[in-house]
Amino acid sequence: MNANLSLTHLILQASALAQVVLFLLVVASVVSWAVILSRRAQQSRTFKAAGSFEEQFWSGGNLADLYERLRRGGEQAGMPAIFVAGYEEFVRQQTTGKADPDDVLAAVQRQMRVTQTREVEKLEGGLALLATIGSTSPYVGLFGTVWGIMSAFISIGNVKQASLATVAPGIAEALIATAMGLFAAIPAVIAYNFLTRGVEKLDSRFQVFADELTGIIERGLRGGKH
Questions:
Q1: Which residue did the predictor score with more confidence, 169 or 104?
Q2: d(CA 149, CA 139)
Q3: pTM, whole model, 2 decimals?
Q4: Res 29: pLDDT
């Protein structure tokens, strides 16, 4: 390969604006991969914690004992956090002496809904950035492409006889910008869709659990056991 057409040489010899475009795209790619890996790891932990918690919850044990175990385990996240928030509100309502089951249930549901929203917002952290990178990187790359093609035409105009050696650097610079734009955008778009589906599944799972816990507490308030 001609040394003057090597990737490193083309980048180093590119115009300042083209180098800025390539730098921005590299940074966007690095940031998107950091977000992808961290969000994916967080979702995996949340799914695992939800599965483990559901096994304990439906094992038939006492909810007060489960609450104590979770409280001793430190700060909770995901489904355990929703349970802790709901159970603590239930106990608080009981200690205040409120007798109306509807008021107690409304307070418990409100507290679980707030906690669920907070947990979902944590899971959604960084997804907006992925969407932004996925949607804008191709256009940033396109800007670099247009600039490279303009440079190629300017090179042709500055010489009496055009040749491949004259236009090749500008065209190559344009193609590199296009490739970098796609390199940054494609993983971000795929990961955004994948992670968004994961958040939706967890949110639905949280809601089903909150409804189940509400039903258990309601039965306890109306004469059953909780």
A1: 104
A2: 15
A3: 0.79
A4: 93
